[in-house]
Amino acid sequence: MNKTRRLVxxxxxxxxxxxxxxxxxxxxxxxxxxxxxxxEATHVWCHKKRLVYFFAAMRHHRDRLxxxxxxxxxxxxxxxxxxxxxxxxxxLLGHAIDTFLPTELVMTECGDNRVAxxxxxxASNAGLTLNVRPDRHFxxxxxxxxxxxxxxxxxxxxxxxxxxxxxxxILIKDNGPSGGAWNFDQSxxxxxxxxxxxxxxxxxxxxxxxxxxxxxxxxxxRFADHPGVLAGFALPVTREDAIRALxxxxxxxxxxxxxxxxxxxxxxDFAYHSRLSAALNVHLLDPRECVNAAIAAYRNGDxxxxxxxxxxxxxLGWREFVRGIYWLYMPAYQEHNALNATLPVPDAxxxxxxxxxxxxxxxxxxxxxxxxxxxxxxxxLGLFAQLLGVAPGAFNDWHMAMYVDAIDxxxxxxxxxxxxxxxxxxxxxxxxxxxxxxxxxxxxxxxYCRYNYKQASGEQACPVTTLYWDFLDRHYNRFKENxxxxxxxxNIRRKRDDNAMIKPIRERAAWLKRAVQIGDRF
Length: 522
Description:
mainly alpha, Serine Threonine Protein Phosphatase 5, Tetratricopeptide repeat, globular
């Protein structure tokens, strides 16, 4: 009789002891299979800290499973390349099947369509059933989201968010929204003003233990040519440390998070943001405990409704919404390029070498921390790439490579869809486009920049401002009837009617695009 009943697949973003794949696990007959592999590490040119985070979190979870009495087969990368390096999940799982001869494969829904296909191929090659179970981590199943979507002509986040609030009785009072409004976004757009932020509580630091230090040494040796700064790794890679990070945010930064969640400032990396997304996305934290902790702070009088609602909306609303979008439209979604953008990601996005202070500040944060909060991502780096005309697939590959919290289900709708408008309006009904004036309003970056955010043409013109008008100009026919862009299209129409105004903008935009294509500094 074959001893191995089930080979239970646990992926690097499924580090949850309550994982559905582990239901009815029989320690005497079942084996957990986990695998580090260099193909995943190099599928995109991963930031060194991203690699450390995933591998360290996986190894700690492996040890936790073993401590609970589960048998774990773990494929571990060593400092020097091994004979089976470079093999993908299909090959590695196939080898495990040949070794353990299971009668069934079990897994929880994964967060990457490409990985799901690799695992399905391995199962098919072996003639085995792959039992894929729902992911209980999320509030909404794929099927529930698809049902909601099929009942609507347009998929609007606010509609989904309100339905989720009602369904789960979150921030609901007397059958209406707590605080008298569903959305406090208008209250959460404050800048720091001319004097800057007053007091920024430091993020908790998690000293690497022996397991994490081994991973750091491995990444430093094997992936030395990968981007990003490895020194100073101090992220929570265990369940216990993730809980500490959550509690620290609720106590020290949530009360001020709301008003300043969009604000930018030189050399300010984290502001009042939680930086919990990576722990959430690998399932070290459950979204319910994050939401419940924030609501408890509100009910106890420790945090205002605007801050709490803004945090809840990111998790209960946006996070669930983009996952639903991803699985509703994949695999075709990854090929979308509604604006026919073709340029490469600028070299500066890897190196930080640019005269644009806004971009250099954001990239410094990304290089050092594998992180940037949503405004640096969307309204600095995403904005400039969109206005420039970077291919949305290439931008998503960069996003996947450089951010520690990037999983395909969350990256693709955010990067290709929301940021680059590559999906043509599935995620948002208009592109998030703005001139340098927005960056000046929300930051002090422009104060130190050699470019003038008010100028659209000439050598001193802000590249964001130049490309903003160029973007509206070249996509005029597409957006001229968009009701949400009426003001912008009226403004570009006036410039298009005056050749003396539009010609120098087009010329400067063409220079910027050439500079990006040949790798010149801008």
